[in-house]
Amino acid sequence: MENFFEKSFHLKEHNTNTKTELVAGFTTFMTMAYILAINPSILSEAGMDAGAVFTATAIASFVGTAIMAFYANYPFALAPGMGLNAFFAYSVVLGKGHSWQFALTAVFIEGLIFILLTFTNVREAIVNGIPKTVKQAISVGIGLFIAFIGLRGANIVVPGEGIPLDLGDITSPEAIVCFVGLTVTAVLLVKQVRGAILLGILISTVVGIFFGVTQLPAGAPISAPPSIKPVFMQLEWTNILSADMVIIMITFLFVDMFDTIGTLVGVSTKAGLVDENGNLPHVKKALFADAIGTTFGALLGTSTVTTYVESASGVAEGGRTGLTALTTGVLFLVALLLSPIFLMIPSAATAPALITVGLFMMSPIKEIDLDDFTEAVPAFLTILLMPLAYSIAQGIVFGIISYALLKLLTGRYKEASPILYILAFLFILKIAFHV
Fold it and tell me: Where is the chain membrane-spanning (predicted)?
């Protein structure tokens, strides 16, 4: 088995080993396993069968992640994206009154377009056209974003009354579990204990039992997965040429593309997987995995599959190859049988991992030239807007627009690529016409 892993993933070349990769993959899974509970909950609001969506979510996550593992050999995991599933349910179905089958069809078409764009190198050109400063800022912004997700998950930060955000009840059981887990994780990191983040999650989950935060499974811990039949291949081909279909499909396309690009660039920068120009080698293969995951996921019966920012937790544990991703993918299949166990892990127990990884993701800020305002302002906007707008994509949009404008208006237009100016122009049109 060791020889198979070495031959498939080139572990020695990446200065890693099987144990490190397995721990990293397990850690990534533990920080993103919440999608197995949240995705069925959100899509069921659109009228979809929750049990069937659970099964579709696990299988789609495995397929996309396995392609990432073997084809791209990167430590990134894929699953139905948060935000995209909310748009699917609350905007397309409940807001516009379309059927969930109509929404799945939009996701399927989007996936096909993604595949086409990947083969024509358009997506790769976009990734490589983003300047190094913005790429570094993306890593930092993602760090703040996922740390914010962790704080929200533990109810430490909550919506305020009369103000956008407020400090929650830090004496609540969820907050206490998070603080305990964060302290344990920090101490283990100081002691340089391998698997510190994973141990922090597990200890937090156990502590949560005593505070009523972790709910133990009522039935048997092993059960057969729910049938996928109610949502499998449920596409609706009527009205596919309507204006609504085009707008919805473009929205899925836009958000997925730049969430994925942002995640790939940010996590890769932190992992040291980029080259001297800040570009990710073999990015086309990583983007292809995302495109296939989305297309196949729509056929299975789930919303857009995308590369997960929580992959950063596995990278922080030393994951550097596709073996990390494969481990995560296999655990999604295992979760089909052990769903009662995996679903009992509360968000308060994964919050310490997200907060800690957020800290790790901050390090590229040291490489940003804060004395050059044509570099510093776009970087700052990228970093700031990701957590405040609750969107990786929006942070990238404002970072790219400001970078292009500042370079152009200061006569330093040659420092930005033509692709960047095209992107900035398209983003301005999007904002102007509310597309």
Answer: 21-38, 50-71, 100-119, 140-158, 170-190, 197-217, 237-255, 330-360, 380-406, 418-434
